[in-house]
Design goal:
Elements (H helix, E strand, L loop, with lengths): L1 H11 L9 H13 L6 H9 L8 E3 L5 E4 L6 H12 L9 E3 L2 E3 L5 H8 L10 E5 L5 H6 L6 E5 L3 H14 L4 E3 L13 E7 L8 H11 E13 L7 E2 L14 E2 L1 H11 L2 E10 L16 H4 L15 E8 L1
Parallel strand pairs: 2-3, 5-6, 5-8, 6-7, 8-9
Antiparallel strand pairs: 1-2, 3-4, 9-13, 10-11, 12-13
Helix pairs in contact: 1-2, 3-7
The chain binds ligand GEK.
Ligand GEK binds next to loops.
């Protein structure tokens, strides 16, 4: 299955900025695919394989949910199987997605982040785009509206990959997803016109190395859209939580916006533009039928002024900058 999706990428990448690197990316991805060994994968694969067939839909980009509209009304039996198989891919973190009459009400209302991102969106038409840590591809599918040449997402979480391909079965967006980590990407490709890194920086032990790596993937004069958790403070302020942050493991650096801007400048980015700074609300991130575990409300103090660990509550910045 993953090999088939890799072949689709290799075909789609022809004529894009990535064309000269297809062989090296194919060999890296094949190596990763060969080593995939995750207990639940067969369960997710089987749900994907049992998704009901439908005449291809099209994406309606006007809706907040990533919405697939079918040419004709689908029968109730179709939706019964569809919902059952999609629910087998619980938890749905990012979305919402609407496939015909089936609404996948995900934990995150990612449309809210998307409305902040588009305030600083560079030109995407005919461009080669990379989204690092793209989750289930919600944002990449939104970007398809702008008709880029290539939309590639890399995402190590296999369930997110399978969720993406499940929606893509109906959406036919043409987005490519590979089950790679940023560490798998060769340094110095210099070939993506726009690189997105959203919600990944704070998971990296070495945030400056992460940003340098991203820069090396971007073509001359290309752009980076960086979205990450920040704290209030000046250019000397950075939170490195001792344990968890809002119950998340593996959280390393939460810089102030001033410190993060300083990192970007020092690494050599230009035109550094703070597009948005927003507190994450319990309206944006919450438990739903499609994500039944605890969510932000349970990770904050009762008055929502602190995380349960006593840290400032989640605040996120969107920065755009140019190589
Ligand atoms: N080393 C890594 N390389 C690549 N991806 C990684 C790595 N480590 C973790 N991830 C992936 O990065 C994503 C972080 S979520 C953001 C999703 C989306 N971008 C969003 O903006 O909603 C965090 C959030 O919810 O904000 C997950 O899908 C991880 O598997």
């Amino acid at each position: 299955m993953f090999k088939q999706w890799l072949s689709q990428f290799c075909e789609k990448a022809v004529g894009s900025g990535v064309e000269v690197h297809i062989d090296v990316l194919e060999s890296i991805a094949l190596d990763v695919i060969e080593r995939i060994n995750q207990g639940d994968l067969h369960k997710w694969q089987s749900a994907y394989e049992q998704l009901p067939d439908a005449s291809h839909g099209r994406i309606d980009f006007q809706k907040a949910a990533l919405s697939v509209v079918f040419d004709q009304a689908m029968p109730e039996s179709f939706y019964g199987v569809l919902e059952d198989k999609l629910m087998a891919l619980h938890p749905w973190r990012k979305g919402p997605f609407q496939i015909g009459d089936c609404l996948i009400d995900s934990e995150w209302q990612s449309n809210l982040k998307w409305s902040r991102i588009i305030k600083g969106l560079p030109e995407l038409k005919n461009k080669t785009i990379l989204d690092v840590g793209c989750g289930n591809g919600y944002y990449l599918m939104k970007m398809a509206e702008y008709q880029p040449k290539l939309l590639l997402g890399i995402e190590p979480g296999l369930i997110h990959n399978i969720q993406y391909w499940s929606v893509e079965k109906y959406a036919q967006s043409g987005v490519c997803l590979l089950p790679l980590k940023i560490q798998d990407m060769p340094v110095g490709l210099n070939c993506f016109d726009v690189v997105f890194s959203m919600g990944v920086l704070y998971h990296r032990k070495s945030p400056i190395a992460h940003i340098e790596h991203l820069k090396s993937l971007i073509s001359a004069n290309g752009s980076l859209i960086l979205e990450t958790l920040v704290v209030d403070g000046d250019e000397r302020t950075c939170l490195v939580p001792e344990g968890r942050y809002a119950q998340m493991r593996n959280v390393w650096f939460l810089p102030s916006v001033a410190m993060l801007s300083g990192w970007l400048k020092k690494i050599g980015f230009n035109n550094i533009n703070v597009v948005d700074i927003s507190l994450t609300t319990v309206n944006e991130q919450r438990s739903t039928d499609w994500m039944k575990f605890h969510s932000l409300k349970e990770f904050l103090s009762d008055d929502q002024q602190l995380t349960v660990e006593g840290h400032p509550p989640p605040k996120r910045v969107v920065i755009s900058c140019q190589k």
